Amino acid sequence: MSHTADLLLASTSPRRRELLAQIGVRFDVLRLDVPEERAPDEAPAAYVQRLALAKAQAGSRLRPELPVLGADTTVVCHGQVLEKPRHRAHGLAMLAQLSGQCHEVLTAVALCQGQLQASCVVTTQVHFRPISIAEAERYWDSEEPADKAGGYAIQGLGAVFVTAIEGSYSNVVGLPLAQTAELLQTFSIPVWSLRHD
Q1: Residue 90 contacts by C-beta under 8 Å, 6 or more apart in sequence?
Q2: Which has the closest alpha carbon to 180: 25, 55, 59, 51?
Q3: Phi and psi of 162, rounded to 5°?
Q4: How far apart are CA 107 and CA 183, in angstroms?
Q5: Which long-range contacts (CB under 8 A, 24 or more apart) does 128-131 make?
Q6: What φ, ψ does residue 183 adopt, rounded to 5°?
Q7: Which of 72, 119, 136, 143 could cross-link 110 (Cys pair, CB 3.0–4.6 Å)?
């Protein structure tokens, strides 16, 4: 990345890197190890917001010279949180649960620099068509869903299951761009529409 970064991204997700680059943000990637474990009875929105803030705060303590962006995404279907599948059987069970249903994708975005911090949680409704067992098995064998919240990627092969979305598409990918740009502006970090150099 550029040596004139305006921001540090506390995420190794290639999707988040691509989305930030898409809106013209100059950033460097910061690798952190923040435990991702949901507390008992913790609401999904509170969970993703806590993790996004923890990532941003940990990054800010490590590199206080620049604002740090943390983010976390989870999928919720009928009140059940679906995170990254642990193994094949878990991934296939997730796809069976999502088949023919509407679910929510929640992404929290947090920015932190010292005592200054801001965050938001964005929710998108995603509708799936029915998925056959054979389709689910072929999809798992593609290796695409193995590291994705909810066990699918809307920006990849998983798009064939999606009949409609209500809300932000980029939120489902992993970073809601309109809301992220608003947060960046509160930290005076330019996006493409505000950059003058």
Answers
A1: 151
A2: 25
A3: -90, 120
A4: 14
A5: 128/98, 128/99, 128/100, 128/101, 128/102, 128/103, 128/161, 128/162, 128/163, 129/99, 129/100, 129/161, 129/162, 129/163, 130/99, 130/100, 131/95, 131/96, 131/98, 131/99, 131/100, 131/161
A6: -60, -40
A7: 119
pTM (2 d.p.): 0.91
Element (H, E) at 126: strand 116-128
CA-CA distance, 161 to 102, in Å (whole number)?
11
User: Which helix (H) or strand (E) segment is 163 a member of?
Assistant: strand 162-166
Catalytic residues: 72
pLDDT for the residue 162: 98
- In tens, the pLDDT along 150-170 reads 999 999 999 999 999 999 999
Contacts of 97 (CB under 8 A, 6+ apart): 77, 78, 80, 82
Query: What does the alpha-carbon distance between residue 44 and residue 75 come to, in Å, rounded to a whole number?
Result: 9
- For residues 18 and 175, give the distance between their C-alpha atoms in angstroms, rounded to a whole number: 10
pLDDT for 2: 44
Burial group, residue 41, by CB count within 10 angstroms (0-12, 13-18, 19+): exposed
Q: CB within 8 A of 93, min separation 6: which ones?
A: none
Record the tokens describing residue 107, joined without a space. Answer: 């992404």
Question: Cα separation of 44 and 145, whole Å?
Answer: 21
